[in-house]
Batch of 2 targets.
Target 1
Amino acid sequence: MRDRLPKASKLYIALLHYPVINKDGKVVATAIANMDVHDIARLAKTYGVETFYLINPIEAQRKLASQIIDHWRKGYGATHNPFRKDAFEKVEIKSDLSEVVEEIRALNHCKPQIIVTGANFQGELLSCRGLREAIKSNYLPYLLIFGTGSGIADEIVNQADHRLESIRGKDGYNHLAVRSAVAVILDRIVDTT
Amino acid sequence: MRDRLPKASKLYIALLHYPVINKDGKVVATAIANMDVHDIARLAKTYGVETFYLINPIEAQRKLASQIIDHWRKGYGATHNPFRKDAFEKVEIKSDLSEVVEEIRALNHCKPQIIVTGANFQGELLSCRGLREAIKSNYLPYLLIFGTGSGIADEIVNQADHRLESIRGKDGYNHLAVRSAVAVILDRIVDTT
């Protein structure tokens, strides 16, 4: 059995479009932003993420995202910009989080450690340094979830294994684009040396 | 004189739209991307950057950027999203790099240390750790320049005081969005503790 174990942890990321909260704290579904797909796919490729899951419950949204992805993987985009093609190979579209968790479990014969991110977490949090060490020192799959809108809804946060420490700026300003948060957090938790 | 010295280094960033190179290595001027302005303004606010300079030699481009900025500083955007207003207060538009350098020199009575960034630098480079320590331990103004297109043209790179180490991914992939590079580098060089 031993030689069937992976050589290191596998890191998966997901961008959640439902359930997330809006500015007023209501649970909503958000639209997929083209720039999120591009920037986060390139980050996933840079930092050796296994798969970048786009999660959206609305079929028309998934179809639109699928067309964008196909353009860069197989259409004119693939010849126009082969580096973008490489990045888009990382992207998968799913309709809900449970599908993602099931896929990772099936691929790894092991439930992933689920880690949620957010700009306003308080209390007991996993540090980026702690997560970096954990990823390097064990063999579990990790799923890191980023929320669109104003963040991941409580029902998902409360089910997670860990909440990751929030990015703290200099003057308490914590309103980064989710694309920027993915960049900062991947750079903090992935050892590229 | 001593009490007129600033208490710590001041960090300025610039997004250069000319002179930069395109995919074929030719020197070109690029267009201002709305998402760059939003994401980098929010990063500048988060990481305590003094000013985020948008540099573009084309008047129509500067006018368009100015309209976007005014919308978020003074127009409907300012009441709709006050956090975005705070971020946009950091943005200034200039027509060329020498204007930016002169403004920083006038404000600080001292020429800024000019540091260029790029995805493919080789040779003797300033490390992010080294820059972080320098910013913490001296009183010079620093200007960190990010290029659009395929990167900053040689004529600017060759005039800089330092070239910053490139962001290295896991498998040699180095095709991040400039927005993502700004996020990673500011997080590496600014001490927010």
Target 2
Amino acid sequence: MMESRISLITLGVRNLELERGFYESLGWSGTQPDPTICFFQANGLVFGLWTELGGYGAPGIELAYNVRSPEEVVGLLEEAVAAGGTLVRAAAVMDWGGTSGAFADPEGYVWEVAHNPGWSIGSDGSVTM
Amino acid sequence: MMESRISLITLGVRNLELERGFYESLGWSGTQPDPTICFFQANGLVFGLWTELGGYGAPGIELAYNVRSPEEVVGLLEEAVAAGGTLVRAAAVMDWGGTSGAFADPEGYVWEVAHNPGWSIGSDGSVTM
């Protein structure tokens, strides 16, 4: 069971400073946990700009669905494959400390499925950094 | 001023029935206002699958930001251009009854800016169909 919600939308960017500056000119406020990525808290989800997106995912944009435990990552990937999706990356512990895997929907759009111990998920599914 | 929120994420699809079925197999529930599009209510935003996306926008995915009045569409497009974005479509009344225009960010990602009289926007920016 996948709740109908989206946790993170990430745009692959070449010039992070330029892109971050554009959204900040419009009033958004970003934070950079490292030099490759900038996160903006949005309405119950996070919007990201990342210089290292690529090699998997829909061209330029990746969606992510965050779950409440590392075990749920594995379970949801299995459900997605059973529903007709394709496994893109098996669940694994990532260097940023969370657990992540990915599936593609029938037309190839990739969803990362992640457990991030640093982000909280509200009862309504909203994600807060 | 653009609030840091996202109203709609639309994936361009070839086989709407297949794609809708995949997300419904995972537990989502879609509605089709017409045969070309399927909307799913998500966490304060709407997720769409559309067979006619194309010709503009990031490959395969378009983001949208909904505003509370038709006049705000024009104003936000002007602000985006002033911030370094590019006008993609000027504000116009659409055949579905709303007002819509679009800008691209500095790396070409397109945001539709729309006023949809049929969707409500909460005080926190959440969009409900």
